[in-house]
Amino acid sequence: MSNPVRDAAATRQRILEAATAEFSAAGLAGARVGRIAERANANQRMIYAYFGSKDGLFDAVLEHHVLIAQDSVTFDAADLPGYAQQVFDVYRTQTNLVRLSLWQALERPDLMPSLTPVVRTMADKVAAIARAQEAGLVSTALPADTLLDHVLTLAHGNLALAGSGNPWTDDQRRDLGVSVALLATPNRE
Questions:
Q1: Quick check: is 131 in a domain?
Q2: How do the residues of the chain divide into helix, strand and coil, expressed in percent and rounded to 5?
Q3: Comparing C-alpha atoms, which of 87, 85, 58, 54 is closest to residue 72?
Q4: Is 132 part of any domain?
Q5: Number of folded domains in the chain?
Q6: Has residue 155 been placed in a domain?
Q7: 75 backbone dihedrals φ, ψ, rounded to 5°
Q8: Residue ranges making up the domain that contains 74
Q9: What is the DSSP letter of 74?
Q10: Could you tell me the CA-to-CA distances from 50 to 3, 10, 168, 176, 186 in Å, in that order?
Q11: Which of 2, 26, 49, 142 has the fewest C-beta atoms lying within 10 Å of its C-beta?
Q12: What are the C-alpha distances in Å from 106 to residues 110, 116, 118, 139?
């Protein structure tokens, strides 16, 4: 006999995978819970039991992929160009995350600040940048939170190109590093 806990975890994972494909293709408004259930080989009641609503499922899918992306990137406040390039690499290789991010920006623009793990990791990064600024390793021209926001905006800026079929090139990656270095390097006059 199978373990119900393991089956529940496996069902939840299948639902997340099916929902990733559905939300990536159709966005929140266009996604259908019935298609997700069919693709996940689960019934719709299980989706609502695990996630509460279609919005709750979208939130869980986005958080799942953001956490995977965060775990694959090393943050070093003294190397913000390298961090930005790692973020670029994640988006370049994870097309589902790119599409989910675009849908999130269109349909749920206030979602990211409400995801506790995202808020926590952003606060940790801002604090690390502030310490690097105090140590003279990072420019103080911008407050730490604004600097991080600009770095991530530059790294995510290619999202608009991703939807048009333009590849994320090595030249774009290099230029991103140069741009972030210009923002982050302290003026040594």
A1: yes
A2: 75, 0, 25
A3: 87
A4: yes
A5: 1
A6: yes
A7: -100, 125
A8: 4-184
A9: -
A10: 18, 12, 36, 40, 48
A11: 2
A12: 10, 21, 19, 33
Whole-angstrom Cα distance, residue 53 to residue 151?
34
Distances 116 to 34, 60, 186 between C-alpha atoms, Å: 29, 12, 32
Q: Which residue has the tokens 């140590």?
A: 135
Tokens of 183: 């923002």
Residue 158 DSSP one-character state: T
- Of the pLDDT bands very low, low, confident and very high (cuts 50, 70, 90), residue 158 is low
Q: Angle, to 10 degrees, between the axis of helix 4-30 and the axis of helix 33-40?
A: 140
- pLDDT tens column, 10-34: 999 999 999 999 999 999 999 999 9
Express as a percent the part of the chain with pLDDT over 90: 58
Q: Are 168 and 88 in contact (CB under 8 A)?
A: yes
pLDDT above 80: residue 157: no
Query: String of b and e for 44-71 (b: at least 16 CB within 10 Å)?
Result: eebbeebbeebeebbbbbbbbbbeebbe
Q: Is the pLDDT of residue 137 over 90?
A: yes
Q: Which of 4-18, 23-37, 129-143 is least confident?
A: 4-18
Task: Flag whether 137 is in a domain.
Answer: yes
Q: Output the domain CATH number for residue 117.
A: 1.10.357.10
